[in-house]
Amino acid sequence: MLYKKRVPEKEQEMDDYEEVLSYYKAHQKLKKKSWDIYDLIARNILKNINIKEGKVLDVACGYGGLMNALRKHNNNLEFVGIDMSKAMLEVGRKHVANKKIKFLRMRGDNLEFPDETFDYILCKDSFHHFKNPVKTLQEMYRVLKKDGYIYAIDLRRDAPEEAVLHIIQLASELNIENMILYVESHRASYTLKEMKKIVEKSGIKKYKLSSPRITKDFLKQYNLKEDDWLTASDYLKEKWVLLIKKE
Ligand SMILES: C[S@@+](CC[C@H](N)C(=O)[O-])C[C@H]1O[C@@H](n2cnc3c(N)ncnc32)[C@H](O)[C@@H]1O
Fold first, then answer.
1. Is the CB of residue 61 below 6 angstroms from any atom belonging to ligand 1?
2. Is the pTM of this model over 0.85?
3. What's the pLDDT score for residue 247?
4. Is the confidence at residue 112, as pLDDT, over 80?
5. Residue 125 C-alpha to ligand 1 middle, in angstroms?
6. Is domain 17-156+190-226+239-245 in CATH 2.40.30.260, yes or no?
7. Is there an atom of ligand 1 within 6 Å of 124 CB?
């Protein structure tokens, strides 16, 4: 493990419009060059959950990259993305929002929705920022409908070192700010064991917490070159996935 001790990050790392725009552009550049991070996660969601139609909430959605990717696979979904960063929401409203994707400024640990509002709840790469991860998970569960699903994914500090170093190298090729952001986020992320404690504290009894399964077949959908295959595979190796079905 590269960092034994967790070093928490600021809750809201990006509230400068130009900084968020550069983060957005770095993703667009990567998408053109090789593969799309958000599409990879969208496909992983669809592999785990048989999503048909309904209302989706993305907690700490950033500029909405994941909602945008998932919408391309399923046009029957209505999305609401919430985030506390004004700049993220501004970039999202400008580049991603449409009739089916709305953005609201809100905190994850105080979701301003009635109980059982959403069919699916997503949360990508944000748990390590939350001031109150237990309360945030409880809020997600509260606004989830019966038979609905929560899919959360984030970095894991206990990922294999080679995978982490590989992603640091990739991030540095995009731009230096991006690399620093990534290293700080990795250092702030939870291990699988730490994340398990958070879920158990929330009182949720039935859940699945694991590393995403990556097979060549799964990545074949992308027609990736060997190098990109390894990158995509390492990108997923350094994540945990939390899957919850509300019964
Ligand atoms: C690394 S970004 C990930 C954004 C997005 N999910 C993605 O994958 O592109 C983390 C996001 O969490 C948001 N955030 C952190 N704490 C939050 C909270 N308590 N409530 C809502 N948003 C929060 C930040 O503003 C930031 O947009």
1. yes
2. yes
3. 94
4. yes
5. 7
6. no
7. yes
